[in-house]
Design goal:
CATH superfamily: Dimeric alpha+beta barrel
Radius of gyration: 14 Å
Largest sheet: 4 strands, antiparallel
CATH architecture: 2-Layer Sandwich
Low-confidence stretches: none
């Protein structure tokens, strides 16, 4: 089942986010074959990061929480709030893809 994981950073944590980001991206790569989409949540300027949104296929909510517990941003104490919700994608994605290189 897909789980939408919404993660909101603690205030004034951009330096921590940037420092741990390489570990976070490497950890995301371990589930790349099960990832529907992932990316940072930003302020309205489109560049200032304030959290993350991940949608990943896990066998259960417990498995999603276990994965999240070992996630580098979680372990570093970046997040002020987290939410894990079951998600059913009923709409084919047509926008929001990264630019082709």
């Amino acid at each position: 089942m897909l789980y939408a994981i919404t993660l909101i950073d603690k205030p004034d944590s951009s330096a921590l986010r940037q420092r741990v980001r390489p570990e976070h991206k490497a950890y995301l790569a371990t589930v790349a074959d099960r990832m529907a989409f992932a990316g940072p949540l930003t302020h309205d300027d489109g560049t200032t990061m304030m959290g993350s949104l991940l949608v990943i296929d896990f066998p259960s909510r417990n498995a999603a929480h276990a994965w999240l517990a070992d996630e580098p941003f979680t372990k570093a104490g970046l997040y002020g709030s987290t939410s894990v919700q079951a998600f059913v994608n009923l709409w084919p994605q047509k926008v929001g893809f990264p630019p082709a290189h």
